[in-house]
Amino acid sequence: MDELFSIGVDLGGTNLRIASYADGTDFLDTILVPTRLAEGRERVVRDMCEAINALAIKDYGNRRLAGIGIGTPGPLELPEGILRNPPNLPGWDGFDLRQAVESTLGRSVEIESDANIAALAEFKFGAGRAHKVKSLCMLTLGTGVGNGLILSKHIWHGSTGMGGEGGHIVVQDVGGAPCGCGGYGCLEQYASAPAIVRMAGELMGPAAPSTSQEIAHLAMAGNQQCLQVFERVGHALAIALTGLINTLNLPLYLIGGGVCEAWDLFAPVMFRELPVRSYVYRLTAPEVLQPAHLERHKTYILGAQLGPSAGLLGACLLPLHQKSGSSQIAEDTLVHQ
């Protein structure tokens, strides 16, 4: 019997990452090309499809192509695959990504929000698998703030595909920073990498570093203004997590993305404020915040395990996940809801 492989695409605002993958292996091949947003969305689709075709014709022995998965910044209307005012893809509002890709490739594709597929990857091969949960919520702190939901082993889309937009929970309702979504005071404006740079600029003026990594390094060295920036990150996350925890009551909430590397800078404030803000967290807070094994009926907030490869891996998993109709993890190993 032939084995299967899939092709996944991680559509980012800076780079397009494309990979071929066989379940249970590392990536078979990867391609990295710049996302040429300035040349128009059709140029981006052509670049994407050329890379997909290059991987599709490669010789992988007896493996045959199971399908193609694409992760894209949202909001994303599903099942149509139409982008709706994506804050980090200006000019793509109303773009029918599914139709554009399928008409170019001549075959169907699976499309999903980038945060949901990162959550899928963490569920199958990261923290979700390590801690044997059926459900989790994931926040990805990067260029924006994505939010993926896995409920009872399946991606939660909501009624139109726009479920899981926790990055646009309002965390500052008075004088909040304007957001690309059209609102004000969203989590994305206080916990993403560009938000960290903006907040540092507000405190430090022209002397502020130009990257969130530099700001984190200064904070670790004791710079008080940079420490204050990450306190604001922790404060904003506590507010957003309060809403998510009180609403969902899941066993596991993950924080991933590049900003997560500054965990030790923002997590103390986050954990200090959560019991005060969330009565559900207060009633279910674990004694050990980062245990080897999760206790039942407790609420855990942990760093994601898969790092920057989660989105691309999730895109590769998407067509395999859809074909199987499940997560491929045995029922008897999943102990939490």
Automatic annotation (TrEMBL):
Belongs to the ROK (NagC/XylR) family. Its EC number is 2.7.1.2. One of its GO terms (molecular function) is glucokinase activity. This is Glucokinase. It comes from the Bacteria. InterPro entries: ATPase_NBD, ROK, ROK_cs. It comes from Granulicella mallensis. It is an enzyme of class 2 (transferase). Keywords: Kinase, Transferase.
